[in-house]
Predict the structure.
Amino acid sequence: MKAGHVALIIEDEKQIRRLLRIALEGADHQVFEAETGQAGLTEIVHRRPDVVLLDLGLPDMEGIKVLRRLREWTRVPVLILSVRDDPEEKVGALDAGADDYVTKPFDTAELLARVRVIQRRSIVETGEPVFESGSLTVDLSARRVTLAGTEVRLTPTEYALLRALVQHAGKVVTHRQLLRTVWGEKAESQAQYLRVYITHLRKKLESGADAPQLIRTEVGIGYRLSTDL
Amino acid sequence: MPAAIPRAPAFAPAREYAFAVLGVAAVTVACRFLSGVIGYTAISLIYLVGVLLAGMILSRGPVLLAAALSALCFNFLFIPPVFTLHIHKVEDALMFVTFFVAALAVGSLTTRLKASEQTERGREQRATALSHFAQKMSAAPSVEVAFAAATVHVAELFPADATILVSQNKGGSGLVPYPVDLAALREDEKEVAALAFSRGERVGRFTSFRPESAGTYLPIKRLDTTFGVLRITPRAGTTLTADELELLEAFAAQLANVAERDRLMQIAAQAQLSEEAERLRKALLDCVSHELKTPIAAIAAASQALLHSALDGKDTRLSRQLSEEIQQGSRRLNRIVNNLLDMTRLESAVIQPQREWCDVPELLSSAIETEKETIGQREILRSLPEDLPMAFLDFSLIEQAVAKLLANAASYTRAELPIEIAASCTDEQLTISVADRGNGLAAGSLDKIFEKFYRADTTRTGNLGLGLSIARGFVEAHGGTISARNRKEGGARFTIVVPVRTMDRASLEAAS
């Protein structure tokens, strides 16, 4: 990561802001802070941050509202900081355009990994056709999937699902996003398709299907393809 | 079914009068034949015997009629001059008068005897009826059952219908029929019932107060407390005797006893409940203060020491240890707070299962992942059938319940012992079990382990004793059950059973 990335923290708790600042400055970010949603929106305009860390519980306006407002004009990556372990709230934020989330109390290393992933340009944007994670290689241009050098045969649906995950590698992808991408808009509520094909993919790609490491389940939200195996 | 109480007829039916007339006629015919053989003095005795017999079987009116007819016939047919009512001899006149007075006396005496016998029998029957009623009332498991039985009992025993009106509030203004589905009371009925309630005495029909009412209203009262009103409506064309009303009043007293008993039981249950609440509150306070303060103390002490070592700028090994202490303490705090939040969520009943099609092996993996820190290096042995269908359930709720069971197994058994996890599914229910190879559950703790703040081992700290009760809460919110038992081979097994719809994988693949 090149030095001098600008991060904006929109969070009302001073202590959390301080800790986030220490962590982000340690990862070569220039850090700005905002205590309220309104101040945060102003800061985004002025500072042109490369990443925004947004708390959902702000004193002046709800975080989700801040998110909707900023999405009206910018694609800046947004990481949600959520204190509640409530999947619906997170899905709501992801649907409103957030890139990923962490739940408080969070692991600093995990937080920095998320910040890194959402700032990275996706495989579609870079034009780089090959994705690698651990022993898995997916070549999107050749539609070829190999595991430790051996080709893995996938059905068209399995491949479409894997491709959707690869395109957002490292980030959480909601059930609805996956269903829409793979089965089309009409299948949005058919989570059972997803369950079946995720199981298939795991059987074909994971070394221990009992404890999936590659395709992670985010309970109540979706799936996340690990990039750091 | 109680036999209806026999009621003394108000007047003798015409049948008895006819019988009296026929009897006298028969005696007269017999005497006409005998008159050639015996003298008319003896015939008077035969007539007297006839009246005596009538007195034994007939009531007063017909007996008096028989006596009068006998006297007249005797006079007319046998006292000379016959076929006239004239009496010439003084002895004959005396005999006629004696005969008449004797017949009357016999008639009225026997009927009085009979009446008192009947009263006695009635009293006995009422006593029996009351004791039956009392038995029924004391056997009733609840006031609802007792009241329902009482109305049926009264309707069988008396020519009347009974309704019990219970007061909704202390003032007695809100008297409603019980059971409520009965036809609503008319306004005037309500008014009379409320009067019976407030005055605490019998009003309405057959009383001096509002006798024009359709029914009699008896207060269901014990000492100073009135619980409701017993309304008695005689069926068309019947009345109630004073004895019957008295018996009904005794019934009302029995009903009051039932209501009182119910009230006392409620008070006792309430007291028990508040005692239980108090115990829980204390347990919560003790537990929370200890369990929250311990990690806070650890974090405070470790961070302070860390601050000092940072000032010295030395000893990175110590800094590392102290940081780990802080991390451990905060994890412990986080777990406790999460459990408390889950418990609160459960108790405020805001949990509604969000069912969706789930893959059970995925659910189990996810639960293992959730508790990976507690599980540590322990081996997890999974036994799942290959053809486990998709199940329609709330992934998150059941996953968390399984995670709590895993955490429980991991924290109560030694690190080298494996944890076994199994699942099976029928068309209607999913069974998930988590078993360990530890020491098992102590006898007598099986029914307590799912209680809040219960800890099987009180010397072991680090949790609030909420995990299993949260697991139970989640499973029950899902309409399922959770149970625990010791395994024959040692260790404990916890089993979750939830009703689910299932879908065969093959048909799903075809559909997608």
Remarks:
- Residues 339 and 478 of chain B are 18 Å apart (CA to CA).
- Chain B touches chain A at residues 330, 334, 338, 354, 356-359, 361-362, 365-366, 368-370, 380, 382, 390, 395-396, 399, 503, 505, 508-509, 511-512 (CB under 8 Å).
- Chain B has a mean pLDDT of 82.
- The first helix of chain B runs from residue 14 to 34.
